[in-house]
Amino acid sequence: MLTISLFLVCILGFLAQSIGLCMVRGVNEFKSGKPEFLLALLFSGVLAWIAMIYANYFGINTNFKTYEANIWFVIGGIIFGFGTAFNQGCGVSTLSKLSRGDSKMIFTIIGWIIGWTILAQWHPTTNHIKLLFSKNITLGILVSISIALLIWAFTGDKKRQKLWLTMMTIGLIGGFVLLFDPNWTPSGLLHKISHALTSADKTLWPPMESYFIFLSLIAGMLAAAWRSKRFEIIKSNWKQWVLHLMAGTCMGIGASLALGGNDSQLLLALPTLSPGGITAIFGMLTGIWFGLFIRERYIVYLD
Question: What are phi and psi of 176, to 5 degrees?
Fold first, then answer.
């Protein structure tokens, strides 16, 4: 199962790099009157129903978690989104840029760990709930949306087909990898590392399989960057290091409050129609929008 997961995550990384998966990009395009990229990103996890049916048939625990909405998801989403705006990249796109040789993204990742670690020993009050709708209704909704989106994709030009099919494939792969490791996403791994750093309990450290999955994701991104000849070492200065360290810390704190970064929310929470996940995504979009407004008008460009 691990070998299959490594292969699937490598493909996911390759596709994410190739399509330029990034929530900040989606918001920027939406602001310029082109909402399709953001919509494709938000609906990327819609094919998770296939993994759900597969897991149900073979008696596998799906690990999909549904939380009730509360103010912490909103606050966490806004803080995370604000950080991504200044970072000019969300969780996945940070790794994509790093794999293309953007050195300042190293400091964003350090900031992630700092942010997660700050709140490692405290968690906001959140409650698990059953699916918002019954399992059959949830599957029916996801299948209906999937069919509608596929029709929309195949009735468009090649650019539209590539966008929607790539995004939906990323979500499909994410759903299947979840069956092996419920915390396979980059934010999930950092969450576990932050807990281990603040505790003497050595059992809290992630298993080696989690690191292998993370490296497989990077390998897929690196392969795509190399194939498209976009790999280039980009040097950075101390001002950029400070900016990205602060941005990454905001992302880590926000992800801790919202129980996951945008990767976890898009691929794991939205497919179950989780009220908490929907609320977190709304907060992230709001934070990105506000952060871009501040950055564009009051901050000298450092990138």
Answer: -75, -40
Distance CA 122, CA 263 (A): 22
Answer yes or no: are the C-beta atoms of 28 and 292 closer than 8 Å.
yes
Dihedral sign, Cα of residue 72, residue 253, residue 285, residue 171: negative
Three-class SS state of 234? strand
What token pair was written down for 189?
């791994």
Three-state DSSP at 32 gives coil
Query: How many CB atoms within 10 Å of residue 82?
Result: 25
Question: Max alpha carbon distance in the chain (Å)?
Answer: 56
**DSSP labels, 118-137:** HTTT------B---SS-HHH
DSSP string, 47-102: THHHHHHHHHHHT-------B---HHHHHHHHHHHHHHHHHTS-HHHHHHHHHTTB
For the stretch 60-92, pLDDT in tens is: 877 666 888 899 999 999 999 999 999 999 999
pTM of the shown model: 0.92
Q: Going by C-beta distance under 8 Å and a sequence separation of 6 or more, which residues neighbour residue 55?
A: 61, 62, 179
